[in-house]
């Protein structure tokens, strides 16, 4: 249904908005939603497992800032990327460990982690925006390169989508995520190491979010730490839920994220061409997100008691 809506909306915009259906605009649309799509894939991993990661943007910003600072210190690009990856993996591990072993709900754990990361990065960096050195051409290529005329963000999004699809559909760990999201207790009784699986999920989500941060910071040659306080995390949740990844867990796929990303990309691109201001766009996104959550709640009751009440 969402795919049909996205196609119909794109056709309407193509017929009514001059410049929407041009190759240049379509490439711009795909490039602009690539980071959002990669973040959506990261969020989908934890949501399918009946989790939530509100610290995803904070981890992305912190990891990217660590890479940029390492580059400014003169370290080679591979070493800088490994440092940033280590930072986000540590964040993912802390999230997963607190949720799995301390049994604090994911909402509160990741929200607290996001605030903690924002405070720590501001304290360490002493600035809001960090810039990579102009000589780091290999790093900048990850966001600004155009192999065969295709922007690198699009290639990165496609590559991550394929890898996440293979992980969820072809590996035992991926199937465990679905099992845990569908019925945690049943998964535990069948021998799934649920606590380890939770930690792995949050670490993988953080690593994928790190890739989104690299693409974003390389594209703009900067990382603004204020992005942690932006509405981007809600856009990520919107993409995931709208595409059909159930907040109840156990349902959804990479295709769900792709469809949700397509719809949001088409919608925002069309609104931008129509010169709709940011406040109105926020209102529209909020209404769409609220409607998607209500629909998800009606279609996927959280437990048997809720299902009986719905009947």
From TrEMBL:
Molecular function terms, GO-annotated: transmembrane transporter activity
InterPro entries referenced in this protein's UniProt entry, alphabetically: ABC_transp_permease
Protein's recorded name: ABC transporter permease
Keyword Secreted: no
Transmembrane segments: 28-47, 77-99, 106-125, 148-168, 198-221, 227-248, 255-277
Organism: Chelatococcus reniformis
Keywords from the UniProt entry: Cell inner membrane, Cell membrane, Membrane, Transmembrane, Transmembrane helix, Transport
Protein origin, superkingdom: Bacteria
Native organism taxonomy: Bacteria, Pseudomonadati, Pseudomonadota, Alphaproteobacteria, Hyphomicrobiales
Membrane topology note: Multi-pass membrane protein
